[in-house]
Amino acid sequence: MNASSTEKFDNSRANEYGKQSRIALAGYDTCHDLAACMLAASLGNAGSARILAVGAGGTAQEIIAMGSLEPGWRFMAVDPSEPMLAAATEQLRSHDLLERTDLHLGPVDDLPADESYDAATVIGVLHHLEGDEAKRALLQSIRARLKPGAPLIVAGNHYAYASQPLLLEAWGQRWRQNGASADEMKAKLGKILQGADPPHSEAAVQKLLHEAGFGETTRFFSSLFWGAWLTRRTG
């Protein structure tokens, strides 16, 4: 993430991230569980693997899901936000996964260039990066640290929000149904419209991946604005 993206994830955002994410994304836990299943299928039911989890701060849910389902996997959790990584550390400790996880505060580019991973995840990250150049640069950094042919899970919002008024209204109604007042709904809708820059279509996600050196994509989850795909490093 760039500096402006990182600044959004301060202590107050980190502390409420788990609850907020599960309201904003219907099927939050299911998406992460399916990501673990898709990686296991792609890795051929590997008994051991090293997984790079980019943007794992906050809930660390991708690592919790993978770690509980695959006891032989180990993880590198990367996040540029100190409060978010601290929150993830507490979650990993409470799930007895801290000993299987290395933690890195900072960007992917700061990881050793000579280390390679069997697979990677980047979940809920791309739509927080402004512009295609930043999104593509992150994907290229991830690719450089994957083994040839290694799978990558990408998940996040993939519509220009204002282009989908019915989905936007449904998103707001989900907050109302979970107890948000009219003023809170308005504030949250304003935040989602101003605080992120998602790819504008599934085709745009695929284009970014292809330009960054990844192959064809398989979508395995969808929820309002959100989609999740599996692809592989080419070359």
UniProtKB/TrEMBL annotation:
What UniProt keywords are attached to this protein's entry?
A: Methyltransferase, S-adenosyl-L-methionine, Transferase
Q: Which GO terms describe its molecular function?
A: methyltransferase activity
Looking up InterPro entries in the UniProt record yields: Methyltransf_12, SAM-dependent_MTases_sf
- Quick check: keyword Transferase in the entry? yes
* Origin: domain of life: Bacteria
One of the GO BP terms on file: methylation
Q: Where is the Methyltransferase type domain?
A: 57-151
Which Gene3D superfamilies does the record match to this protein? Answer: Vaccinia Virus protein VP39
Pfam families attached here?
Answer: Methyltransf_12
> What CDD domains does the entry give?
AdoMet_MTases
- Coiled-coil residue spans: none
Q: Which PANTHER family match?
A: METHYLTRANSFERASE, UBIQUINONE BIOSYNTHESIS O-METHYLTRANSFERASE, MITOCHONDRIAL
According to UniProt, the name of this protein is Class I SAM-dependent methyltransferase
